[in-house]
Amino acid sequence: MSDETRRVLIAGGGPVGLLCAWLLGRRGLPVRVFDDNDALQADPRAATTHPATLDLLSDDGLAADMARIGLVAPIFQFWDRPTGELVAEFDHAILGGDTRHPFVVQCEQFKTATLLLERLRKLPNVEVLFGHAVADVAQSGGAVSVNVRGPNGTARHEGAYLIGADGGRSTVRKQCGIAFDGFTWPERFIVLTTPYDFEAQRGYCYRSYFADPEAWCNCFKVSADGPPGLWRTVFPTDPTQSDSDLTSDAGAQARLQKFFPAPAPYEIVHRNLYVTHQRVAGTFRKGRVLLAGDAAHVNNPIGGMGLNGGIQDAVNVADKLARVLLNDAPERLLDVYDRQRRTVAVEFVQEQSIANKKRLEARDPDVRRKNLDELREIAADPARARQFLMRSAMITSQQRAAAIELAEA
């Protein structure tokens, strides 16, 4: 078979697209990746990598490299901010029999992308074209083509399949007319990053969640450029406040001091305000086009499930495409990809990320008390704690996907 009849085109050079390229390229398939940015983007978001995802990234030492340049976080905590009480602590060590990685790795997504790009540069059959934006998509019976705008104008590229891993505003998804149903949260989220050591000064672990009827918070540590690392705090905002007020020095200091009073002003090295959605594509497959990552599903960041879901998409779709292109597996295997990953996106990622938010923001005193009491009880019961962690670590969702394959493949 010629390269054209086996080539996989990928729109999007973030961690999901690059992982697809690596998994396909290392099996000998020709791959061409297009990304509209001029280079990898140093975006500090999406740092949490769950045990189920790390298990999928063990080949060629990728998970080990992520742990080396990131932070290993076996524990996470829930706090009641108004009282300052530690409500519950969960240790992934209880999952020692369920995963090879009974911990979370805090590794910012651009670092994961960098590790993948280093590996891709060793594969002569993989091309990564930065500064190239997919403009439109067309399909024929045996091929898919894209027009791509690059530094030298627009050119047409053809392949056997196209993976759309080009983010929440996916051109590929829109070009294919695939619905992206769901909703947008009325409040935007603000991220304030500081070198203030919440572990040394307040006893917080690397992943801490704070329930508060006025304004919940996620607080977690990333390695950044190396020791001592940085702490990222995530808060909801008032929809009526302007961007300038929310991101101003006065606004940022007031938010941090209200939540975490400190004797001196916080040093804030990064601030970002963003809109948050809960949406899932109507299908993850349309003919020779497959969607993965944010192009297929987006969610709020509480619990760190978005990029993990995207990485799991990439492993799943790359395996099935390789089987179709190299082993003459039937194309209906790609429909199984759609059923598996869309089911997980709806039943697990959407459901749990919404539940995580509602747990932290509950205002009714009785509901708050019930939520916190339930967390205490779960943490105190090893069997219930294990089940809770199986779900939060995304092991249960992987098992659900595998069951669909066994039943329907």
Quick synopsis:
The protein has 409 residues and is an alpha+beta fold.
Explained architecture:
This protein is of the alpha+beta class. The protein folds into 2 domains: 3-184 and 277-408, 3-Layer(bba) Sandwich (FAD/NAD(P)-binding domain), CATH 3.50.50.60; 189-274. It contains 14 helices and 22 strands. The chain has helices at residues 3-6, 15-25, 51-56, 62-69, 109-120, 171-175, 198-202, 243-247, 249-259, 306-327, 332-361, 365-380, 382-392, 395-408; strands spanning 8-11, 31-35, 48-49, 71-73, 75-80, 85-91, 104-106, 126-130, 133-139, 144-150, 153-159, 161-164, 180-184, 189-194, 207-211, 217-222, 230-236, 270-274, 277-281, 285-286, 289-291, 297-298.
